[in-house]
């Protein structure tokens, strides 16, 4: 599966969909982004059950700002609409494989329970 380009218009719909979505925030002028691009693309070919998406931070500055991107490349992993991983920096292929394996292995019932517990602890305004 090839990577898809995300814009502000389709970002939320894509990352909240069931399953795993990896998002690479990048820019054309970024050297580490150019290094990571082929690794990300190769992973998309071997992990067809995962949605691989890219956000061009130059073209989508508002989206990058809303996502809190301060350094690129930044990789975010979403599972069933929950942000479960976010890290700046170009990952080598084995590290990207580890992230994918870890996200696949998450017990989402436990993740949802943790989210509910955190929300219950938040003071209401």
From TrEMBL:
Record's GO cellular component terms: cytosol
Recorded superkingdom: Bacteria
Residue ranges annotated for the Thioredoxin domain, each copy included: 1-105
Gene Ontology molecular function: protein-disulfide reductase activity
Pfam families xref list: Thioredoxin
Entry keyword set: Disulfide bond, Electron transport, Redox-active center, Transport
Cross-referenced PANTHER family: GEO12009P1 (PTHR45663), THIOREDOXIN 2 (PTHR45663:SF40)
Family: Belongs to the thioredoxin family.
Protein name: Thioredoxin
Organism name: Homoserinimonas hongtaonis
